[in-house]
Each structure stands twice: as C-alpha cells, then as structure tokens.
Amino acid sequence: MYRVYSNIFPMAFKIGGQNPKSNTTGSESDYKKVTAGEFFAVAIWALGFVYRLDRLRTVLYVFFTSTNGLFNIAYAYVIARAIDLVLSLNSGGIFIFKSVYHILGLLLVLFAVQTVFQSVSGYIGNALSVTLRPKIVRAFYTKLYTLGIQSLEQPEINNRITRANDNLMNIFSFVDDVVREFADIVGLAGSAAALIAFSPLLILAMVVINIPYILWDKRHRGFIYQYSYENTEGFRTAGWTNSQLNSSISLQEIASTSSFSFLDNKYINFYNRYNKKRLAITKRWRLGNGSFGFLTDFVLLYGYFKIFSGLATGAITVGIVTFYTRLMSMVQNGLSNVFRGMNDLTWRGANGKAKRRSQNCVG
C-alpha cells in the first residue's frame, strides 16, 4: 500500500478554479493531506465509480474480501479449545480420537470455507482488474475529448493529465486497497473485542504506544507525496525526453543535430537529483519507524507477563494462553496495518476534493 495510485486520475476532470497566472505545478491544496471526511468522500467516489462499471463483481468482492480476516480469530479459538481438550484427555496417558473428531471436523469446515472465500475474492479481484481497464481508459479519453483545445493547452491541465495518465491503470488498485483496509479494520475490531475481555489496559496501551509511530509515518509519507507532486513538471519533461531517445524517427534528427548527450544528461540529471532527496527522506522515515516500532515490544512483554501470570495462578488454561497470545499478535499487527494503511490511503487521496467534484463528470 505504498504506491501513488489512481487517486490522481480525476484531477484531469477538474478544470474549474484554475489560476493561469500561477507558475507552480498546482495549488498547495492539491497535495495537502485530506481530512478524514474528505478521505471517505474519495473512497466512496472510487467505489462508486468501480461499482457503476461492474455492479455485481464489486459487491461480491467487497463482501468476500472484508470478511476473510475473521477466520483467523475462529482458528485461534478452536485450536485453543482443542489444546485444552487434548490435555484433559491425555492427562492419564490415554488419547481418545473420537473425543476430538468434532473439533477436527470444525477445523476442516473452517479451512474449506476460508478457501472458498479466498478463491472467490481472488478470482473476482483479477476479473475486475482486467475488465475495468478498457472501461477506465474509455472514460479518460472521452473526458479529454470534451475538454476542448483551449483547456488542453494550459500547462496545469497538462500536468494534471500527466499525473492521471501515469496512474490510470492503477485505479482499481486504489479501490482494492480501500477494501483491504476495511477488511483489516474488521479483523482488528474482532480480535480487539476478544482480547479486551482479558485486559482492557493492554488494549489501551497498545493503541497509545502506536501513536508516535503513526504520526511519524504520516509526516514522512506527506514529505514523499509532496516532493513527488512538486516534480510533476520534471517527470513530464523527463518522460518526453525518454520518448525522444527511444524513438527511431526522433533518433535520426537527434543524431543529425548532435543533441544526444544534451538530452541524455537532461534525463538522467533530473532523476539523479530527484532520487537523492527521495532516498534521504525514505532513510529518515524507515529509521524512525524502526525506532518507534521497538517501543511496542515493551507493551507486548507486558501482555505476555499478564498472560503467563494468569496461567500460573490457574485463571486461564494452556489453550487460552495460546488464544490470547495469538490475539495479542493479531491486535498489534492489525493496529499497524490499519493506521499505516490509513496514512497511505489518505495521502494517496490528497486530491479528494477534485475527485468528489468530478464524479458527475465521469458518470
């Protein structure tokens, strides 16, 4: 979930409110992180856009994908009960298979149902990614056709078209990540609800300790997105230069004018400069993430202490120990995935206002 996707696509549909006197690649608001309300507007627009193109597949994909995370909780609980049952049966040195066959049967049913859900979700996701391609392209070039020559001659309109065209084929990936983010939320809510009965304080500590990590992650995703956005003009120029250097027709003229070295340097110098700063931001971002991630280990140690203390006093069984330890891991991973995914999606939805205003245009 770390790529800049088709949230930029609808920017090509917004031509109102332009400032032709501006010498920037776009207004500051175009790359500012959206609010929670604006993010949901973007997500709803994207889901609605895909839904209008393929209603049945979209509904089925959302259902089968979002409910898949609940199976892990069911597995953890059934296995915990199975461990307790086996230990009670084996306490006298005798294991009676017929006493646990119903648990094995339940696990088999869970395996089968999850396999079906995953298969259906995977198939529908692949089908949507294939069938939506020509429909999205058609919507894009149809809208460009309606803009008119005067609009297409404006530099900012061309920048918006460039950003949209670069990410056009990834529009379903944005929708896919929104659905998977919802699935992560469903799984997190289920595991947290089961664990909170054991220790509400543990859940609170896990949420609080993740806040510094979330804020640091959000801040540096913003740096990367803004830096990429502000270099749209450079990307457009570099893309044109690349196309000239890869064209057999253009190469003839380039050779005759001895301009190959000039164009080559123009292309590579832009990416050398861009990549140097981008890697510096990424390095600082990842180092900070690792440092804040280390803090969560102390909360997990507290959780293990609580669980093992309960086992020592006889408050919980061995099977429930495995259940709670599994839940604790699921909650921590869920918190990380949900908040990190939300940071990513809200930055990728930074053009949400333009999307919402353009939804009537793309029909």
From TrEMBL:
Keywords: Membrane, Transmembrane, Transmembrane helix
Alphabetized InterPro entries for the sequence: ABC1_TM_dom (IPR011527), ABC1_TM_sf (IPR036640)
Entry's Gene Ontology molecular function annotations: ABC-type transporter activity; ATP binding
ABC transmembrane type-1 domain sequence ranges: 59-346
Transmembrane segments: 34-53, 59-80, 92-113, 192-216, 311-327
Membrane protein topology class: Multi-pass membrane protein
Principal location class: membrane
Subcellular location, record wording: Cell membrane
Name this protein carries in UniProt: ABC transporter related protein
Species: candidate division WWE3 bacterium GW2011_GWB1_44_4
Biological classification of the source: Bacteria, Katanobacteria
